[in-house]
User: Which sequence fits this backbone?
């Protein structure tokens, strides 16, 4: 369907634990529309990529303020591997929509988190969003 709608590259993801993202807690099913138009489907388990597996209950959020605190800790590289591994896995998948190799993007995604670049990008987005909303 995405290909028919003109999408050039995408991943459709289903995690067996019911989360709406790739998970480190079990099996993920991925269908990848590659830039060359080919479509492939495969299963992915985070531990196969060197990421520690954890039950999904250990990564659930809480209140809005608690979730914001957790997000800022993850994006600044100051959170536990347990939380950051989920973000690393999903970031690697997003980057891999171009070349299709999630495993090769794990280190790059982790480097971005540890460098603080992800938090800087979020802060810039917040600033721009606030400026735009004050102009309306």
Assistant:
């Amino acid at each position: 369907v995405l290909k028919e709608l003109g999408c050039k590259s995408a991943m459709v993801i289903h995690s067996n634990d019911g989360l709406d993202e790739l998970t480190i807690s079990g099996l993920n099913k991925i269908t990848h529309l590659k830039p060359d138009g080919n479509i492939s489907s495969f299963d992915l388990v985070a531990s196969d990529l060197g990421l520690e597996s954890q039950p999904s209950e250990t990564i659930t959020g809480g209140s809005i303020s608690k979730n914001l605190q957790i997000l800022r800790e993850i994006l600044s590289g100051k959170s536990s591997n347990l939380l950051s591994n989920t973000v690393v896995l999903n970031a690697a998948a997003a980057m891999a929509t171009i070349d299709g190799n999630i495993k090769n993007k794990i280190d790059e995604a982790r480097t971005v988190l540890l460098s603080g670049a992800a938090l800087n990008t979020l802060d810039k987005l917040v600033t721009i969003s606030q400026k735009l909303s004050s102009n309306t």
